[in-house]
Every structure is written in C-alpha cells, then in structure tokens.
Amino acid sequence: MRGIVILGAGYGGLAAALELDRHGIPFTLINREPYHTFKTLLHEVAGARHDPHTYALSLADLFHRETSEVVVAEVNAVRLSDKLVETNRGAISYGTLVVALGSRTATFGLSGVAEHAFRLDSLRAAMELHHHVERELERYRQTGDPVHLNVLVAGGGLTGVELMGEWADWLPKRARDLGLPVHDLHLGLIHAHAEILPDVDHQLRAVAQAKLSERGVELILNERVAGAEPGAFILGSGRKLEAGTLVWTGGVEAPALLQEAGLPVDNRNRVDVDEFLMAKGVPDVYVIGDCARFTAAHGTPLPPTGQVAEQMGHHLGANLVRSAHGRPPLPFVYHDHGMVASLGPRYGVAEIGTHHATGATALVLKDGSKMKYLMHLGGPVTLLKRYRQWLEI
Ligand SMILES: Cc1cc2nc3c(=O)[nH]c(=O)nc-3n(C[C@H](O)[C@H](O)[C@H](O)COP(=O)(O)OP(=O)(O)OC[C@H]3O[C@@H](n4cnc5c(N)ncnc54)[C@H](O)[C@@H]3O)c2cc1C
After folding, report:
1. Residue 28: which pLDDT band, with cuts at 50, 70 and 90?
2. CB under 6 Å to ligand 1: residues?
3. Whether the Cβ atoms of residue 159 and residue 304 lie closer than 8 Å to each other
4. For 299, how many CA atoms within 13 A lie in the half-sphere containing its CB?
5. Is this structure's pTM higher than 0.85?
6. InterPro entries annotated for this entry (predicted)?
7. Neighbour count for residue 118 (Cβ, 10 Å)
8. Which residues are registered as beta bridge partners of 245?
9. What is residue 302's DSSP assignment?
10. What residues form DSSP beta bridges with 77?
C-alpha cells in the first residue's frame, strides 16, 4: 500500500514525522543527510561557539519503531501523475506526500554573487565559511595584507545580523589568540535599507544597530549589492568594497524541483497552500515550512522561519493522525511566539508580543526555546546530552 512519504527532516518535516511516530502511523522520511540540522544556530558554527557536530542530531537516534523508515537520499524530482519521488537511491511511491525541503540562499541573478560569496544555509556551508575565515587569518599572518582581515556580510535580516553578532565577538578574540593586530580587523554589514532586522520593532532595531556599532561593526546602510567579483562586492552606487571574506544572506528560495514538478509556485518557488497546508489544486500533496506560501485570511504570507515550519509540521502531523482515525482535518492557525535575535553569545534582542527584552534577558529566552525544542525532539536525555555539550560541562 502506498503510504505517507515526508521529504526533508528539517524543522517542519521532523515535527510532522515525530507526530506520526508517537501515534504509530507508518511513514517514510527522506533526507539528504542522516541527521537533523539545527539550522537556526548555524551562525554559532561559523563563529566556532561549539563543536560543529553538536549542531546535528542523528535521525537514527530519534526513530526506533518498525512503523518509521528513514531513507538517506537526495530527492531529485517529484512525479505527481505517477505519485512517485525520484531519488539518487531509486524511486519511492507515495499515497500522501509531505514536502518539507526547506530553502536555500537566493542570489536573484546578481552577477558573481553565487560564485564569489559564501552562504550560510547548511551545516556544511557554515563549516566551510568558518574554515575560510581561519585561512584568511593565516594569509594575513603570512602576507600582512589587511584585506584578509576584511569581512563583509551582505543582508541585514536575521541570518546576516546573527552571523555578524557572532563574529563581532569571536573574531577579535581569535585574532588576539593568533597574535594578530585587532585594530586591522574590519567587519562590515551591508543592508539595502536604513534599518537592519526588518522583522522586529523599530526600537529593537536601533538597539541592535547600536550594539553592533559599539563592537566595531561598520553598518553600510541604504546600499544594495549589485554583484560580486573575486574578493569584492560591487554596490549599486558603484562603490567597490574589497574583502577576503564575502558572505551573502540577502534572501532565500525554495528548491527548483517544486516548480519542475508542476506545483503552483510563486517567484521564490514557494508552493501556494490552502488552510489544511495542501498544495492548491493538488490533492494528497502537502507542503510546509520554507517551501510553503501560506496566507492567513486578510494577512501577508508567513515568513520563512523555523517557528512557522515547526508549527506547520506539528499541525499537519496531527491532521494526518486524525485522518488515519477517520476524523476530518483542522485548518492551520499560526501563533506568533515572538522573535529573538542573538548578537553573539552574550547579547540579544527579543520581541514577544508587545514586550521587548534586550541583553542577557533576551538570551535566556533564546536558551529557553532551544531547550524546549530539544526536549520535544528527544525528551530529557537528548536535552541533557546536548545542553551539556553546549555548556561545555
Ligand atoms: C543562520 C540562521 C539563523 C536563523 N535563525 C532563525 C531564528 O532565530 N528563528 C527562526 O524561526 N528561524 C530562523 N532561521 C530560519 C530557519 O532556519 C528556517 O526557516 C527553517 O530551517 C525552515 O525549516 P524547514 O523545515 O522548512 O526546512 P529546513 O530546516 O531547511 O530543512 C529542510 C531539510 O530538507 C533537506 N533537503 C533539502 N533538499 C533536499 C533534497 N533535494 N533531497 C533530500 N533532502 C533535502 C535538508 O537537508 C534539510 O534537512 C534561521 C536561518 C539561518 C540560516
């Protein structure tokens, strides 16, 4: 019998799989890697906060029942007419499909950006970025050329800001440890608008900007990146900014295979879904997380965040359990639990409803949400094991 197949073990896919697993409903979970990545914490990997392996959680450790199957494979295509998923390990048929393949960095056709700038959208990318910065520090030591101590991040959204916050803390320490002159270090954050962090309140943006500036980050505001060449971003104003490290965090898009499958997508390959998270006009295919374009009545589409993906995954998983018991599905309702942006390991800004928090208080909230997530994934054992590693006890 054709069963439930879930594509992607990120925040959305994993939440749906765990819900089914708890109720003993059979499913097949297909993921590129044998682990779940804590993607919302990748800036910590780039800043060497902890061992990179602690940002991955083995899928084999999460699913033990005979009713759950984990397939480590690359999904290459979805054939809707045949109800088949093509992978590098063969074709897998489905009765119900859950698409939760996340997103990757979008460069919007900007010349040279994909080739010459790093991105921060997978554990591997975060580790490559970290190693590159270490190599640049070494090159500076060998050549004395200050360009190797120049670091530019383009994009003042959550990803770019959390990365810059992490580096503003780690890089001066690392340079000092290597005996390099910290005053030659230059960190620049390029953003197209007058204020960074568009998803938080104006007051918190100002706090975040002041904190980054205080720690030596140059905020290059109201400047768009027009392209990149080896070792330089070219701005719309014509300025050329040279740096040994270029990072692009200017936006994300869902995988092209969704459009190629014939699903109803927008200009970022996100699939239009209805109130039950089903792809519009495509029965038996559900889409969640960064791959989905969900618009509540009179609202704007939900943003691509881990929080949205996780809630969609839980909801869809619960609906599939209901359906297995012959009960009708419930419509998805999103509950905004607020947003916390870390600016390194010691400072953050948080917006929970109308409440604001800054500094260590914001980080306590972030730690709370990390703990809650770990507890939900694997219970107290996973929570304690991982938290000990992160606390380096
Ligand atoms: C540095 C950074 C910080 C962030 N901070 C926050 C934050 O503080 N709060 C927040 O809510 N959100 C944050 N986000 C956004 C959040 O990480 C994403 O919105 C979230 O991961 C989306 O979940 P998802 O389940 O849709 O996809 P993902 O978590 O990306 O999971 C997709 C899964 O599918 C797999 N996959 C993809 N393509 C294939 C394929 N072809 N074949 C097989 N497997 C495949 C991937 O390997 C992955 O396991 C941050 C993102 C970044 C990069």
Report:
1. very high
2. 8-13, 30-33, 37, 39-40, 42-43, 74-75, 100-102, 120-121, 158-159, 162, 255, 289-290, 304-307, 309
3. no
4. 11
5. yes
6. FAD/NAD-bd_sf (IPR036188), FAD/NAD-binding_dom (IPR023753), NADH-Q_oxidoreductase (IPR051169)
7. 19
8. 151
9. P
10. 86
**In angstroms, rounded to a whole number, what is the distance separating the alpha carbons of residues 8 and 87?**
12
| CATH number where 131 lies | 3.50.50.60
Asked if 152 and 188 touch (Cβ cutoff 8 Å), the reply is: yes
**Which residues is 386 bridged to in the sheet?**
none
Task: Say if residue 306's pLDDT is above 90.
Answer: yes
Looking at every residue in the chain, the average pLDDT score rounds to 95
Please give the number of the atom of ligand 1 that sits closest to the Cα of 163.
1
Ligand 1 atom, smallest distance to 9 CA:
49
**Residue (of 254, 258, 328) closest to 291 by Cα position:** 254
- CB 289: neighbour CB atoms within 10 A? 34
Taking CA atoms only, the protein residue closest to ligand 1 atom 19 is 305
Domain encompassing residue 196: 113-248
State whether 267 and 326 are in the same domain.
Answer: yes
In a domain, 372, yes or no: no
CA distance 331 to 45: 37
Q: Give, rounded to a whole angstrom, the gap between the first and last alpha carbons of the chain.
A: 48
Position in ligand 1 atom list of the atom nearest CA 121: 53
Tens of pLDDT, residue by residue over 75-121, are: 999 999 999 999 999 999 999 999 999 999 999 999 999 999 999 99
Q: Are residues 236 and 277 in the same domain?
A: no
Mutate to test the pocket of ligand 1, among 5, 7, 11 (most ligand atoms within 8 A of CB): 11
- State whether 158 and 211 are in the same domain: yes
CATH of the domain at 283: 3.50.50.100
DSSP annotation string for 215-265: TTEEEE-S--EEEEETTEEEETTS-EEE-SEEEE-S-EE--HHHHHTT--B
Q: What are the C-alpha distances in Å from 73 to residues 34, 303, 339?
A: 9, 28, 33
Residues 185 and 76 occupy one common structural domain: no
**Distance between CA atoms of residues 1 and 158, nearest Å:** 43
| Together in a domain, 96 and 120 | no
